[in-house]
Amino acid sequence: MDRRSVGISVKPTEEVDTIAAIATPVGEGGIGIVRMSGPQALKIALRVFNRRSTGRGHGRDEDGKAGLGEGNGGQRPKTGGELSGSVEEKGRGPLGAVDAGEAGEGLKPRRIYLGWIVDPADGRVLDEVLLWFMAGPRSYTREDVVEISCHGGATPLRAVLRLLLREGARLAEPGEFTRRAFINGRIDLAQAEAVLDTIRAKTDAALEVAVKQLRGSISGEIERMTGELVGILARIEAQIDFPDEELGEDVDVVWRDTEIIIKGVLDKVEELLDTAEAGIVLRKGVRVVITGKPNVGKSSLLNALVGFERAIVTAIPGTTRDAIEETVFIGGLEMVLTDTAGLRQSADEVEAIGIEHTLRAVSQGDLVLVVLDDTTGLQEEDRVALDLTKGVDRIVVVNKEDVGAGRIRDVAVREIAGDAPIVRVSAREGINIGLLRHTIAEMAMAKLERGIGRTLPEVTVTRERHAEALRSARKSLGEALSAIEEKVPLDMVAIDIRRALGSLGEITGKTVDDAVLDRIFGEFCLGK
Questions:
Q1: pTM of the entire structure?
Q2: Are residues 151 and 18 in the same domain?
Q3: Residues 6+ apart with CB under 8 A from 219
Q4: 160, 265, 271, 512: which has the fewest C-beta neighbours closer than 10 Å?
C-alpha cells in the first residue's frame, strides 16, 4: 500500500507511539484487516468502535431493537463510553458502560467482538467489523495490539485506517510491526527474516524451510555455538585476569578445551555453509539464464517455457537489449527464467551494454541454457558462448529442430561443452519442450541435493547475509586455531573468539547495526 493513498501525511517519531496499517493485500476480498500496535491502541479503538450483539437475531441490538440497516430511524450508534454489548468467543454477555479514558476496561484480551466502526466526529458509520484486542506482552509485537477485520474492499479499509490515524495513530513503516516484535524480544532477526520468507514462499520446500526458521531452527543452532564460545571465552579471560591466583583450573586444560571447542564449532559452521548454496536457491528460486548468439531463438524459447508470449520475437538480430525475467514452476521448483541479449561483438552502444548484462547474468545464474541454431551450423559466436559458460551447470539447447538439417552434430558440441546435456527442440513448434523442462528440473534438483540432500535438513541456510556472517565466523575461528598452534598468548586467541561471536551475533541480531535493520525490514510490506 502506498502511504500517499491513505490521504494523510504522517511522520515517524522517536518515542514508542501507536502505529496502524492495512495488513492485507490491496484489492477486493472477503475481509481485510487493519492493525494497530502501541500504548494507545486500545484507547483509539474504544473511541471508534461500537459493540453490538447478534444474540437475538441478525441486525438487532441486545434490547431487541433494530440495529443498523434494519430501520432504526437513522439513530447513530454509540461509541466510547456508551458501548451496548459484546459477542465474545464463548457467547454473548454485556460488559457494561466503558469510559474511553480507562484503557483495558470493556474489551477483554484475546476475544473477538462484533460491532461498527463509527466516526465520533459526526456519527458516520464506516463499516461493520470484527475487532480483536491482544494485550501486551501476549501479542505479535509484545505491545497492545488491535486488529479490525473489515469488509475486504479498498475503500472501507482506507476509511477505517484514516480514522485511526486521525484519532492518534501513526502510519506504520514497512515491516514495523515485525521490527517491534524483534526489538521487544519476541523473535530474533533470523526469525524476523523467516516471517518474510514464509510470506514469499512459492513452493512447499521453501515454505517448510521458512517455517523451520520461524520456529527457531537456525537461531537455536547459533545460540548453541555462541554458548560454547562464550563459556570457553570466560575461562580464557579468567586465566588472563587472574594469572597468579588459584582458580582451580590448569592453564593447559584451558588451552586443550579451547582447541576442542573451536574445532567443534568450526565443524558446525562448515556444515551450515554446505547448505547455503542450495538453500539460497530454494528461497529465491533457481535462476535459469538463457544465452547464445543473436537470433538463435532465445526469446522464442523463453515464451515456450512460460507458455505465453513474454518476450518480443522478430527476425532482426539483437532485438533483446535488456534482460527479461519470468517466473515459472518446473518439477515443483520455482524457476526464474532470464532471456538475455545475444552474445556477439557489437558497435551499438546500447546492445553492448546489454551484452555486459548478459555476462553478469551468466556468472550469477544457477543453470544456463546455451542456445544454438541448427540451421546455421556451429559458428564462432556459438563457440564463444560455450566457452563463456564453462564451469557452470548448463544445458546445450539446439533450436530450430523443425527446419534444421542436423548441421550441428552432438559430437562437435561435446568437444567444446564436455558432458553437458544436449536437448534438440523447436521453440516455435513446441517440439521437445517437455523434454527440456524435464532436463531443467533434473539438473536443478541435483544441484539442491548436492547441498541439502534429498530430504530437507533441520537447519538450512537460505540467506546470503547469514552465509556471509558464517564465513566471517569461520575465518576468525580458523585464525584462533592457528594462534593456538603457534602458542601465542591467550588474549590473542580471545580476540579471535570475540570476532567470531560478533559474526554469529549478526545472524540473530545481537550485533547488528541500524542500517542492516533498515534494509531487512524495508523489504516488508506495510502492515507486517
A1: 0.76
A2: yes
A3: 188, 190, 191, 213, 507, 508
A4: 271
